Amino acid sequence: MRKQLEALLKKLQKNKLDPIGIGDYARAYEYTAFSKVQEHWEDAFKEAEIHYDVRVTLADVGAIE
After folding, report:
1. What does the alpha-carbon distance between residue 38 and residue 60 come to, in Å, rounded to a whole number?
2. Residue 54: CB partners within 8 Å, gap ≥ 6?
3. N or C: which end of the chain has fewer CB within 10 A?
4. Which of 35, 37, 53 has the alpha carbon at shortest distance from 45?
5. For the chain, first and last CA: distance in Å?
6. Distance between CA 1 and CA 33 in Å, rounded?
7. What is the pTM of this model?
8. What tens digit of pLDDT does each residue of 1-46 get?
9. Residue 4 and residue 53: Cα distance in Å, rounded?
10. How many whole angstroms separate alpha carbon 25 and alpha carbon 61?
11. How many CB atoms within 10 Å of residue 59?
12. Which residue blocks in 1-65 are alpha helix, DSSP H?
């Protein structure tokens, strides 16, 4: 899953797309840094270094019908 997430984030950054709300998160939790780049967020997002943690919880196991 980590490799899939990494590939997705690289593709989004390459195309300057933020459909998952990273800019909203940055505005809410890192406002000082975000306010410096909000006018050109797409370019800043493309060059951003994104740190993430992948955690998976299995809710249930069994046969799929």
Report:
1. 42
2. 1, 2, 5
3. C
4. 37
5. 24
6. 29
7. 0.76
8. 889 999 999 999 999 999 999 999 999 999 999 999 999 999 999 9
9. 13
10. 33
11. 4
12. 2-14, 22-29, 31-37, 41-47
